Amino acid sequence: MKNVLHKADSRGKSENDWLKSEKTFSFGDYYDPERIQFGALRVLNDDTVEAGRGFGVHPHDNMEIISIPLEGCLEHEDSLGNKVTIKSGEIQVMSAGTGVMHSEFSKNEEGLVKFLQIWIYPNKRNVVPRYDQITLDKTKSKNKFQQILSPNTDDEGVWIYQDAWFHLGNFENNIETHYQIKKKGNGIYAFIIKGSAEIGGHKLEERDGFGVWDISDVNIKITSENTEILLMEVPMEIN
């Protein structure tokens, strides 16, 4: 088993009058040659956007972009004709493919918004851009992991062009569970949204990240009430 631990206070940080961003991997003005990516997981940004402010129109291509709101409402508009709002309890995905333009703003009346911005390298380049979002059934993540993303169009959650699976779980204290790797050669990156847990012998607190690979499964012990964990299974090698 191989692993890497990224403590919350070790992340790259940037802040201005409308955005506070904490970056697990190198992004924008934060660069660490030891923290470029975890396999196909390229970006994990923990963003807080002030009310009525946001990211103006900007381009993406050949990347799978996932947004998971944690608090507040995020307005999204793109060149595919989508103009929508996403909020806590939902997940959004864009396959940027040959290219897409989009913007993201915190809704004025809702105050600030907090969300996770995640980028995954695709396994197929130059696809036709696509957009999707769904509302999650939170009862399915009570003391267990609920699948929220996969490579399969007919499976639970949204889908992307990559052999990756995301799961969310909301746990009470002292729950013990495990996760089984779905594809040989994949690794798991766990992000503690809130609470605390012990994974692979490491004690993890709120906003810590822990990656593990060369395994078939991993045991997880919850160590505080109301713990929420995002598990991201991704290929460790990309084409």
TrEMBL record:
**Where is Fe cation bound in this sequence?**
H58, H60, H102, E104
InterPro entries for this protein: Pirin, Pirin_N_dom, Quercetinase_C, RmlC-like_jellyroll, RmlC_Cupin_sf
Give the required cofactors.
Fe cation
Do you know which SUPFAM superfamilies this protein is assigned to? RmlC-like cupins (SSF51182)
GO MF terms listed in the record are:
metal ion binding
Which residue spans adopt a coiled-coil conformation according to this UniProt entry? Answer: none
Q: Quercetin 2,3-dioxygenase C-terminal cupin domain: from which residue to which, for each copy?
A: 148-234
For the Pirin N-terminal domain, which residue ranges apply?
A: 11-120
Alphabetical list of Pfam families matching this protein: Pirin (PF02678), Pirin_C_2 (PF17954)
Keywords in alphabetical order, please: Iron, Metal-binding
Could you give the cofactor binding note from the entry? Binds 1 Fe cation per subunit.
Gene3D superfamilies in the record? Jelly Rolls
Signal sequence, renumbered to the chain: none
Q: Which family does it belong to?
A: Belongs to the pirin family.
Question: What name does the UniProt record give this protein?
Answer: Pirin
Q: Which organism is it from?
A: Chryseobacterium taiwanense
